[in-house]
Here is the input.
Amino acid sequence: MTTPLSLICSNRPDGAVVLAVTGEVDMSNCAELAAAADQALGRGPGSLVVDLSAVGYLDSAGLKELLTRADRIEIVASGVLGPVLTVSGLTELTAVHGLEPPGRLDGDLPTQPYEPPS
Amino acid sequence: MAGREDDEESRWPGAASGGVFAGNDEIHQDLAAVDWTATPLGPPQAWEQSLRTAVSILLSSRFPMWMAWGPELTFFCNTAYRRDTLGRKYPWALGRPASEVWAEVWEDIGPRVTGVLGTGKATWDEALLLFLERSGYSEETYHTFSYSALRDDAGTVVGMLCVVSEDTDRVIGERRMATLRDLGSDVSVARSEERMLAFAARQLAHNERDLPFTLTYLFDEDGGARLAAATGMAPGHPAAPALLAADDPDAVWPVHEPAASRSAVVVLDREPFTGLPAGAWPQPPAQALVVPLLQQGSDPYGFLVAGLNRYRRPDEATRGFVELVAAHLAAGVGSARSYRVQQRRAEELAELDRAKTAFFSNVSHEFRTPLALIMGPAEELQARLAGAEPQVREELEVIRRNGMRLGKLVNTLLDFSRIEAGRMQAGYERADLAALTAELASVFRSAVEAAGLSFDVDCPPLPQPVLLDRGMWEKVVLNLLSNALKFTFDGGIRLTVQDGPGEAVVTVADTGVGVPEQEMPRLFERFHRVANVRARSNEGSGIGLALVKELVALHGGTIGAASREGEGTTFTVRLPYGNGHLPPDAAVGADGTPAPPSGAEPYVQEALRWLPDPAVPAEVPGQGGGTSGGAPVDVVVADDNADMREYLTRLLRGAGHRVRAVGDGKAALEAVHAHAPDLVVADVMMPRLDGLQLVATLRAAPRTAGVPVLLVSARAGQEASVEGLDAGADDYLVKPFSAAELLARVRANVELARLRTQHARWRRALTDSMQEAFFVCDAQGGIVEANAAFADVLGFGPEDLPAGPDQPWWPDAAADPEGHRLVAEAFAGPEERSGAGHILPLRHRDGRPLSVSASLARVQDPETGGQMVVGTLRDVTAEQYAIRRESAVAALSVRLSRSASTAESLDGALKEMGALWQARHALAVVFPDGGRPVLTATGGATDWSALTAEHRAALTALRDGPPLTPSGDGHGGVGVGLAHPRGPMVLWLDLGEQRPFTDQDVNLLSLLAGHLVQGLSRAHQIDQQRETALALQRAILGPAELPEGFAVRYEPAARPLEVGGDWYDTVALSDGRIGIVVGDCVGRGLQAAAVMGQLRSACRALLLQDPRPDRVLLALDRFAANIPGAMCTTVFCGVLDPGSGRVAYSSAGHPPGVLVDPDGGVRLLDQGRSTPLAVRAVDSRPWAQEEVPPHATLLLYTDGLVERRRRPLTEGIDRAGAAVREARHIGVEDLAARVMDRMAPPGGYDDDVALLLYRHPAPLSVRFPAEAAQLAPVRRALRSWLNQCALPPQTVQNVLVAAGEACANAVEHGHRDTPGDTIRLRAEAQQGSMRLTVSDTGRWRPPRPEANPNRGRGIALMRALMQNVTVTSGPDGTTVAMNTGIPR
Here is the structure.
């Protein structure tokens, strides 16, 4: 059983393709997201907008799929996903719309910098 | 069978791979499982032959190998490589690009691989240092490996094969061995502690890899530690303080651990451990080992702090290495300290020696003047009185002869001190050694022949002269000859001079008594005299041979001795020819003409006086009749000096006494035995048997015990005379003495002896007739006299007893200090002439203890004036035993009757019996049926396995022997078998060495053991009753397991009952809600508890049937009405929804619940109240509802917690609320303890108390199988719980993602091998913080973002979203823990 996820692809009036994601994304269903994104990317040469506004949960498995396609997609997300998208660096790789100004989040981030072990 | 094998093969996973991975090992299966189509190599069926061959070689080899093939250098390895090197990377590594597999060392090995692929030439690296990530940390490893090219079917280089062996253990082992070897490489440094430590520090500093830093601390006398050496650490670093106080709990290093000889590990994760030196590594140590510098049999010298290499796991080998280093340091410190002590002692001795030499030198000089003034006039008188009567001439001759002898002694001493001081001036001249020596021999011939010995002189002329100081050489030869004469009684003396190679050899050989072998090394030592050998005279200073040796040495020669006891001694002197051996400034005179030896006469005269003088008859009886005062008596005179012997003889004969003169103690003894004299006059120093021994021998034999002895000695001083009198001499005379003094003493002693023997005979007859033991002893306890009954009582006659204190019939001071003190006090205590009765513990000669009734009196010895004790003794052992038995039985009975359990009974009995027999330990072993023996002991071993095998065997034998029959082991241990309610038991007493256990003791032990059996049986019944009662009580009190979020406390008022009238209860209802009950029955103790048990059960049943608090209480009203004593019980009954925190409740007259909000607000649950149970008939009861907000605490209790006399109840309730409010952020379990503590009255609770706490929400605890599909439901549960905690949405989201990552990690990695294992998630809110833990049972894989970017990002997310993220990995699994603050 995978976590329920709804993926709806549509064209915006300006021609951009929008993939609206609803539900939660984790390791059990991230492959579905990847497949839908690839299919949507195949629909046209333009950029793909992945709309995560209705996603209540997104973990590193889902992030990986977005990161690997970062140069071809834009993202719309609600503020609740802000820390995850910021920490993962996705906000630096592509445009992310709908978040609160990043300054507000800085205060919540722990001061300890992350260092991968040598 | 071949056909079968085909079948088998078709089942192998390898079959699908075209047989490339055909084989049954795990690695074949794992290789086959790789999705090869996803690699550039494609499906194995399509692999070219060269690849197949390479793979099959790889897999069949048992030597560790890996290979890489194709454009991505796809990774293969064999089983040996997997085992030795790959570690946790297996099987993930199979089929991956090699650069990914060994990403962490690719920087090192990449160029080598490229080189092989480019040139086709093989590489070779020996013991290359590589940091591998295979064990969960960056690990220091060494590998020896070779890369060689692999070619495809067309011959192109397409891959590489690596044959590798890991050298890590060898390299590190050799490195550590080198350090240990270097530490011991310079033994000379051991002389000073500072040099030793500095040297050791230099050696330790060489090994920066194993020991990035070390600190050596040495303990001061006050227990503090002082830094003595450091390596790797800069001076003044805060982690290396110069001094560590002994009692400072915040000391940088834990001083108390090594002080107690224990090692300790210190984790270096705090101040002052920042900025520690890293040694040879990029990162400083993460741990340090503190190891004591152990000292054999004493406290440690100090300790070593060793910073550990963080790139190696700190295993046993590491610890062993550090301990060896510490052992070396400890040995070094020990030997340096002992060297220092020895050095100091040697200096002190040398100083003493110098002082002594100076003293001799001074004294000898002072002697010469008076000597000259004696000798001059004496010789003049001799010349003038040449015609006088013979006796005058004889006496003048004695004066001259002895003056000469004294002069010789003084000269010898002076020579010696000159040599010692280096001031001996030798005048060398060329001499004819043979002629000179023969001349000296001829002077001595008369003395040798007078002794009846042969004298063989063989001195042929030598080819060349010898440079000699004539005076010194005379002393050499004369000393050797007189020495030979002194110790030779038969045979003869032989003197030879011979020519040797470059030297002249002179030997003096005798056939005398010889020198015992053990004395040979000290023969030439100053003042050393060979003891207990037969000699012609006991005279001598013990410096003759030492002087000879020094004199020979001044001539550049040597002297040696060879001897066999009873056969003779040969001295050999070797003198070199020429003058090469002499000091350059030595004066060499002209050849002198042989002159007669100048200093020989004293030697010859002395030797002649050792010989029996035929001129003086040994005995002239009947000479002289009338003496001045008193009858003539028989006297034996014993002296080895002929002059003295003759002088004494002449004096005594002149006084009319009969004299027998002998030359030593043995001859004196023979003379006494032949005919008992009236008096013995003896010198103290005599050959064969000296004066003291002579007295002792005479006193030991009854026949001669009464013979009076007058000792004469040259040894002056108080000690010498005391020694003589102690030995039993009647009087003591010191040389020089006057003739009148000697005669007066002789007369007095003879008369006293006559009187004494008369009185003694009479007294003996009297005392022997007494039935009680009678004795006289001196103040020290030494028995002077005793009668026959004394020997009957104690087994000792006076002749068996030593002088002085610590008599063998006294209790042993070490084994029985109390008894010894008692006896010593009794003997020291009695007042003058007043009898005093004592019961004293004495010892019979056979070791058996006696109880003796003693009457003692102190009297003054009328002769000496000394204090004496006279006393009588009566053996009262049997009477005392009867008393002791009665009191022992009574004492044991009292102990047993007071004991409330078998354990207490046994413990008390052991103490009682141990004390009774003054046992070192008493122990009891119970052998339960088929179980392990159980030990109870008053000391010593506390466990059966800690006993020696012999002891265990002895105990087992007693168990199997007849009961109540004591038996000893012959080494001071005694035991008895008896019946314990749990099985056979053996009771054992360790009495210590040589303590007799008498028949009476055996009877008493048997008797007491019998009483003990009865006592144990009674106590056992009590035990059983109590256990039954306890089990029943616990059953009626409360639930065995509390739901999450609850904590309870219970304190019954009536001890030892464990329950009272109060109770609490929680009931899990079927809809997930929880029933909560706290009640209080009237009264306390057992009766109230019985009522409580029924009400609790009823309330529980009612709640399960209809979970509405008001109806439950209504039903309980009816139930209580039928139970006597249940009326007026108060009950609080509530039903809690743990999801929402809503609680519905109803109270039957119970004090209100207290609700403390997270902000500190206190509310009371005081609605829904009605009367206590069964007070009046009611149709309904009220109920109310309250919501417990997140992080709020609910307190329910009984009135015992809050009710205090003369205080309003509300005050107590307020105090309880305040107590909860103060600590509302700590966990409920701790909070319950805190509240009980805060509320306790000064003397403790005097009423039953029940207390129940609930914190909302209860911690979330979820277990789920390790499957990806479980993540969403777990997340839902967590989200719902987080919402109960009233957290801001962003915090909820952060926690959810962090928890999701931890769970995904556990699913994906922790359980890659065993999917479906259980993962546990726990979330808990307390102290303003949310704590989340995810535990699994799998192996954790350290994050390696380059290998798996996805997972590394997961960890990064956790760290970014939460605080204090820790990953703890152990053999049982991995736990991820993290925190986040709860905004208030």
User: Anything to note?
Assistant: The domain at 184-424 of chain B is CATH 3.30.450.40 (Beta-Lactamase). The longest strand of chain B covers residues 139-151. The mean pLDDT of chain B is 82.
